[in-house]
Predict the 3D structure of the following.
Amino acid sequence: MSSADREPKVAWRHEELLFDRSRAGRLGVQLPPSGVDEKPVSELLPDEVIRGEISDLPELSEVDVIRHFTRISRNNYSIDLGLYPLGSCTMKHNPRINEETARLPGLAQVHPCQPVSTVQGSLALMWALEQALLQLTGMSRISLAPAAGAHGEFAGMLMIRKALDARGESRRYVLIPDSAHGTNPASAHFAGFEVKELLSTDRGTLDVEDLRSAMSDDVAALMLTVPNTLGVFEDRILEIADLVHEKGAFLYCDGANFNAFVGKARPGDMGCDVLHLNLHKTFTTPHGGGGPGAGPVGVAENLVPFLPVPMVEMKAGKFVLDSERPQTIGRIRSFHGQFGVLVRALTYILSMGGAGLARVAEGAVLNANYVRNGLSGEYHLPYATPSLHEVVFSDKRQSAHGVSTLDIAKRLMDYGFHPPTIYFPLIVSGALMIEPTETEGKEELDAFIAAMRAIAREAAEDPALLHGAPWSTPVRRCDEARAARQPDLRWRPEAQDAQDTR
Amino acid sequence: MYPDDLFYTDEHEWVRIDNGGVTLGITKFAQDELGDIVFVELPGVGSVFDAEDEIGSIESVKAVAEVFTPIAGEITEINEALTERPELINQDPHGDGWLVRLKTDGEPDVSDLMGAAEYQEFVSDSDEE
Amino acid sequence: MTTGHRYLPTGDEDRREMLEAIGAESIEALFSSLPAAIRLSAPPDVQGPLSDQELRRYFRRLEAQNRIGGRDLACFLGAGAYRHDTPAAVDHLLQRSEFFTVYTPYQPEFSQGTLQAIYEFQTFISLLTGLDVANASLYDGASAFAEGVLMADRLQRGRHRVVVSRTIHPQYRHTLRTYAQNLELELVEIGWDESGVTDAEALASAVDDDTICVAVQSPNYFGSIEGWSTAVEIARRHGALVVAVVTEALSLALLQSPGASGCDIAVGEAQSFGLPVAFGGPYLGFLASRDAAKRAMPGRLVGRTLDADGKPAFVLTLATREQHIRRERATSNICTNQNLCALAATIYLALHGRVGLRRLAEINLQRATVLRERLTGAGAGLEMRFDAPHFNEFMLRSDRPVERVLADLEQRGVLGGVAPGGDYESLDDCILVAVTECNPPEELTRYVEAVESIARPASVVSVG
């Protein structure tokens, strides 16, 4: 690679902050006249509650705002540009019809406090979504309230706690495999439990003997991701569920990886007592740069009384919102749920149908195995166990040349791909977790495989190239230590930072 | 590489005993593992700890490590310089990057701790894993 | 299966090639790790696949079973969700795929657009709340409130009492109780005084040296502007923190900010900034605090730094607080923020700006004032329940049963307000009325005329 190849191929324009773009006198909206006889504000409100001008708010025209956000948007890679193989994130295509249905005024302009007779359509929608998700998961009821997977996990752990209280039991521990996502122990902790880590076998599955010895009357639950974060299905799941239930504990299933087996099997049939789903993963609701998502939480019959409120119910042919649930864990948020996200998820489910969703899982698994096959010549596979919808490699071979997973990820950006998930799960050193999803065609996978192979060659021949990557992105590697040591978390009017001038 | 006048724990802390008391820090191996250190959480002067208690934590960009004291005692001094310059731990982990000083009841018990040569071997073995 | 699907690019030919390359017999063979006992023998019974045309019909049928403010009814509902006009530019920008299809910006080199927008959002929230630092958003106002109290708890280790005003939104208090149910916190609720604001005497006697924080809302659930000074003064006496709650974020454009008044943490709901009311979500929780407390803050934070070439760059920072590193010792279990909603708010605030936001708040205040005057002056048995000043929401007392009044109003095409009686027994004769720029003068008139026609004796049968 010559130095000419290392030079940025596109001149990216640095766009200043909104606040630095501000020019006095500009306005980006036309406000209607009040249409009423106005009184001076000082007559309507006591002086001490009136605020002075917020002089640092910017003044911008619509042109400024459109330009600003259009320019900075161009600094983002997106799924619409190509593969986004983040493991456990399920970055699949975001269907556009979802955006249309969510924006129907008769759905988007409904106020949550309207009389129930005026919102039968919204309630029917939530009911239909719950019924569809019940068909897919085999659970008994699902709450659509949680705003995200972690929120659903939290609700699930609270329900387990409440169920134990109702039995007159107080159990201290929750068991979590060492391969688990960080939200699992965090959610368990916030529900008041102590976490005990379980080991994985050299096949990447849960060590059932370790589970057997850890199970006791003081264990409230086992939290499992199925398949796990290595993309490996717990083939002894029924045995695991029995072990847990024998001791009167609950099996929590983290549904983040549902894309691997949706339509092929159901957590409810595996002995799962409570699960959450991530609608922004399997069900295509947009990630939006970090949300909004939704994390419906589903339960088996034994936990139904403890579901958060409100629940949508059908009474005498009409839908209602029911908050009269005496054993509920309570509200976990305002109003009823991430309704706009729910619309999108239901749209997707109906656009696929039951058989279609089974094909989703098939496509996801086929694609991941194709990538696994394409890369196992160049990259180290820590586990020989078959993968389902995602595959985890490590940087073991490349580190012999002084190249790390981080370097590989950064260099992939120069090839026009978003990197996979890196350094997770923690049980693999230098993990590269790749989840292509089913919405990628063979040619995109082939291009990705070719890029990864090229990078493996570069690692052997020119490690410096990788250490300095990425070369062609809007910004190069960032000084994260500086960001954490000297936090600069907002614009300030008096800031005299050196900045690129336009 | 590892100073002879220090004693080492298997959690990668070191202690230096002098007639004023005990100084505690983390080793070069530990700061290598953590990477660029960005923040240090230290106990207040006057806090009292048992042996093996957690006394604080050290954060890098991607990780956080708890710090344990191998020796029981009361904190008499903390390294204020680390507030502004946590990178001192990376630059001089056995010297300017010290964390706290403690005073002990009687002679500090270092019988369970490793000497420099033993620790050197301990971390070499870790590297090979 | 040979029929194609628009979201499944892989056709039969490619599938065969790929299976051959892998050396697998069939796709089913790839699922051999699933125990036979749990394998479904038939696909789940879920309707579909529907075409775009059928989907449109399906959802329009659902839509038709709803009635909405503006088009079908004059809507004066608030109670924590506020109807505001969203400029057209907001949704156009949100629909750029570079904004809505992207993941969390863990790879900053590919995500400067998302990161810069969050930095700008954090700045807006800081400016509006008058506090030093704000996070990248939380799920909604209710969970933000709970997280704010838990944050205060982390900052005040060794204390156990949390004093909460009952004038805070009931759903927020309920959510706090859910979040706190397994923690060793003593939640103490105090009531309101004659004027409709937090009872200062009750507050003073509830706050002690074991108090972590005092939580108050302004404007409160009744619409009354409480201001922050009383709570701050009382909290300071005992070294307690003040958590300020705001459910109508537009009020921050006109009313004294929590930060300027001495509050330590500000939390609440920013749905008013460009998010449709959408039957309750997705909304936009915010949280801001003083700089010294930032390491105790839950949720994501974006910071500005330099890249390898010395250019300004934005990154996620202070990540060691978060679940993916700290795991069970994290400041919260939260993983997502409400990013796209925060982007909508940022664009909304950028368009309105210093002048527009203030003027919009004034329009809200003026229309609410006029409606309040006309309703209480209509001779229809409606009067202000409290005499505290209000912003764009106020509470009326009715001398007729509230359910009846609201039903009669609905018949006349008016959703007159929210009845607080379900949450506040002593206020079961009241109606909470919200007025925004989405209620044009014609709707104010419609409300008044509806009320007058209800009050006018229609026959000799009954009066008032």
Notes: Chain A touches chain C through 203 residues (CB under 8 Å).
